[in-house]
Amino acid sequence: MRNDFKLLDRQSAEDLQAYLLRAKRLDQNGLVRFRAFGRVLAAYVAPIFAGSLMDDGPTVLGLRTTELAEESEVDAVVPIANILDRLAKLLADSPKHYVLELPDSLKTPWAGISPPRTGWEPLVSIPEPELTALATAGIAEVAETLPEAVGGPIAARIRGEIWGRQMKFGSRIPTGAAFVAAGLGFLTENELVEVYQAQGWVRISSEHGHVLAKAATGPVLD
């Protein structure tokens, strides 16, 4: 497979940069998985991941797609920070063609997770203000619950318990999906956001991107 791809234009490069800047704010050491087969590039990030494929904690992925200038075949996992550096240089140079060269691919457990590509069924529609309120409340609870000195596995467990609860929409959507949708800039004011389900997964889809999450196993949020 190739280790580069050609973005359609400067606007595409700026949109990818904005998306990855938001993803990095959610996870300073985060990775992005680029997948392209043809002229559509999919960029996956994992702001919430349990840490193991066998863990029952929440797994919430962000997905944004963009059109490429030419057909490519890419499947690589690379540091977000590295790609942001390369995008910044690319945009500063203002080249005729926006070709993004990738570093060597890394391995991460969440890249082995493959949400369904077909079989999605409509589940529910959720008004944007409700998702934003859930994200805001969860962020506040994480801040109040976690002592500043606590880190590592304990912090991850506490965040997992908060973001792994189910929303009150007759579904198994984890509240962490609202956090990721808001944090990645996928929500538009007063938008009606569509939710789908398939094979143990749920998907929040807006005009700006998708959030894919393993169905929640935690209690329903009061």
Number of helices: 5
Major sheet strand order: 2-3-8-7-6-5
Q: From N to C, what is the helix and strand string?
A: EHEEHEEHHHEEE
The CATH topology of the largest domain corresponds to DNA Polymerase III, Chain A, domain 2
CATH class assignment of the largest domain:
Alpha Beta
Distance between the termini: 48 Å
Q: Could you name the ranges where pLDDT drops below 50 across 5 or more consecutive residues?
A: none
Rg, rounded, reads 17 Å
Q: In the residues, how many domains can be counted?
A: 2
Structural class: alpha+beta
Strand content: 25-35%
Main β-sheet description: 6 strands, antiparallel
Molecular shape: globular
Q: How many E strands?
A: 8
Domain DUF8010: 4-90
Domain DUF8185: 115-216
InterPro entries: DUF8010 (IPR058323), DUF8185 (IPR058498)
Characterise this structure.
The protein is an alpha+beta fold. It has two domains: 4-112, Roll (DNA Polymerase III, Chain A, domain 2), CATH 3.10.150; 121-214, no CATH class. Helix content is 32%, strand content 32%. The protein contains five helices and eight strands, in the order βαββαββαααβββ. It has helices at residues 10-26, 80-93, 128-145, 152-163, 175-183, and strands at residues 4-7, 31-48, 60-79, 98-101, 121-127, 192-198, 201-206, 209-214. The chain has a six-stranded antiparallel sheet with strand order 2-3-8-7-6-5. The protein has a two-stranded antiparallel ribbon with strand order 1-4. α1 packs antiparallel against α2 (80-93) and α3 packs across α5 (175-183). The longest helix is centred in the middle third of the chain and has 18 residues, at 128-145. Pfam families: DUF8010, DUF8185. InterPro entries: DUF8010, DUF8185. Residues 115-216 form the DUF8185 domain. Residues 4-90 form the DUF8010 domain.
